Amino acid sequence: MSAFTETALLKKLGELNSSQQSIQTLSLWLIHHRKHSASIVKTWQRELENVPEPKKLTFMYLANDVIQNSKKKGPEYGKEFNVVLGKVFAHIGEKCGSDKLLGSLGRILNIWLERGVYDAKVIADWRSRLHKESSGNSSSSNGKSNGESEKPEKEREKERSSSKSEKSDRREKRKHEDRHSKSKRSRHHGQTSSSSSTNPPPVEEVVAVEPENGHTPPYLPLGEPPEPEELIKALTSIENSASSDAVVRERIAKLPPEISEISCITKLEDKDKAKALAVQVNEAVELLNDYNARLTAEMEERAKLATMLRDFQAEQKELLSQAEQRLDEHKKKLAKMLGLQKEIHDHLSNLPDLTQLPDVTGGLAPLPSAGDLFNALH
Hints:
With 378 residues, the protein is mainly α. The protein has helices at residues 6-15, 20-32, 37-50, 53-69, 76-95, 99-115, 120-142, 146-149, 151-187, 192-198, 228-239, 246-253, 271-350, 370-377.
């Protein structure tokens, strides 16, 4: 990646827009230069305070992406942002009154709280700074009484309680959907292996955010790009997955039809045959339950692998883009050096060859020495 300078950082922050690609590209660049995290975060804070209100949200999306994606590589950004975010939320609460901006920042704080990115007390303090400054500014500008100024605080408590209830509802709904999907996969075990290749893998839940400037900004960032060794290990484990277990699949294919046909029960002639059929059915049920469990685990592994491949591909595209830029720069430098080399060669070829010049000193008397000149004066 390109070397870090404050000028380069200011340029990239100036070019930042609300698109997913723009935010993730700059986030990768910042994480790569995490040894300059203190300087980067200070510059980020200074620039955020000077940009228009819509772009402040884009700056916060960038901070969210950097904070969450840099956790595996080190705590630098988490600590540095922790120092300045209190002032940033207070600044936004004082200067900005957009419900959309405050709502989006509230969702970011909720995600940080759920994922344990920052301590709950710290997040509560940031939330109060974000809303208290806003309500105080609003009450002073409208000349409201003290009794009226307490209303936003009650509304905030109501919003927090409703937010908690909505959060629990979403969790219960997600658990219900997971149980429903697992039971559905168990009932349709014959279609599981084909569905893993045709259906798109489940992705991480993304909180909906209203589009800005024709783009939908990413509220939740891409995950941490995996190391090549981790990706190779995951790909190797998929090769030995349940759907590729030909032995078990052949055993399932060879199961006798009478174990799944209810009509065959009426054809049983004695108790021994019924017991033998019951044993076959129990063995088939055990085999299918075990295979379905393996297929369910494989589905989860494939979903994780799809996410890893997505993150790895995004990182490789960014690295490729930066490598192409460096290649173009080096090509330009090489062209300049070749041009300079040609000029030097042309200049040298135009210089006279001193070995070919005539000897202008041959046959002339030697010049007098200093002593001869001194004696001649006297």
